[in-house]
Amino acid sequence: MKRLSLAAVLACAALSIVLSVAVASPASAAVLPEFTVETNLTATFGTSKLNTSGAEIKSTEGVFNDSEVESKKLGKGLIWFKLSSLGGKECHSTSPSDTEGNILVPVIWHLVHPKGSTIYLILFLVKATTISCKFLATKVEVLEGSTILGRITGTGKTTSFKLEVNVPEGKQEFTSYENDAGETISTELKLKVDGVSAKGTQEDQAATITTEKATELIN
Fold first, then answer.
1. Cis omega before residue 96 (within 30°)?
2. Euclidean distance between CA atoms 171 and 149, whole angstroms
3. What is the reported pLDDT for 20?
4. Counting Cβ atoms within 10 Å, is residue 106 exposed (0-12), middle (13-18) or buried (19+)?
5. What pTM does this model have?
6. How far apart are alpha carbons 12 and 1 in whole angstroms?
7. Secondary structure element (H or E) that encloses residue 114, with its range
8. Which residue from 160, 126, 167, 161 is spatially nearest to 145, judged by alpha carbons?
9. Inter-residue contact 153 to 121 (CB < 8 Å)
10. In b/e form, how buried is each residue of 161-190, taking b as 16+ CB within 10 angstroms?
11. Could you tell me which of 93, 14, 15 has the C-alpha nearest to residue 50?
């Protein structure tokens, strides 16, 4: 697998896209959740599905690594989907480039809440990624600015947290969050399939986040 320089791929200025302050209607500042200590994190997950109209890319397993923590609530890293396929034929990322069956997705992560809730969510801001599949020579592009939410839960001070990225009844389970300006921001996985715009969902099964240091989620 080819390794990437995250410093070259990711710029934290991109986070302003999803945490920007709206000009039209000012809102009260919100307190975002965070870990009790700054800590790098990794993750593992089982079967994953990237769903869109006419295409379902399946990966049998995956990891999140190369984590670079920026604060108690913010960091960046690389998701690596393994043994990926569409219609039974292999898929791999071409930008970032990798080998057969491997899909690399650079992301920025941020801890957030849904508006008016104390549920802990982790927001993934996805960098542009192009996926090539042998089935019908399909090309799937994950567009810059795409965002995905997952629920993160832990019990007390720990290094192990459960991550849930679910798609009940064909829809992403969590589709909005509150930013630090107190505004509700909608999330969307924006795709192009063979050049045609499409909306997608992402589902990850049996996902676990492991932190380098023992920590706890707090509001």
1. yes
2. 12
3. 43
4. buried
5. 0.85
6. 25
7. none
8. 126
9. no
10. bebbbeeeeeebbbeebbbeeebebebebb
11. 93
Q: One-letter amino acid identity for 12?
A: C
What is the sign of the dihedral through the CA atoms of 168, 76, 8 and 15? positive
Give the per-residue pLDDT at 10: 44
Residue 49 to residues 59, 143, 200, 203, Cα–Cα distance (Å): 6, 17, 10, 5
Rounded to an integer, what distance in angstroms lies between the CA atom of residue 43 and that of residue 62?
8
Beta strands in 87-194 (DSSP E): 89-95, 103-112, 121-126, 129-133, 139-142, 146-153, 158-165, 176-178, 184-186, 189-193
Q: Which residues contact 116 (CB under 8 A, 6 or more apart)?
A: 178
Q: Which residue type, as a one-letter code, is found at position 13? A: A
CA 193 – CA 116 distance, rounded (Å): 36
Output the CA–CA distances (angstroms, integers) from residue 207 to 17, 152, 157, 171, 186, in the order listed: 27, 10, 19, 19, 23
> What pLDDT is stored for residue 109 in this prediction?
96
Return phi, psi of residue 19, to 5°: -115, 25
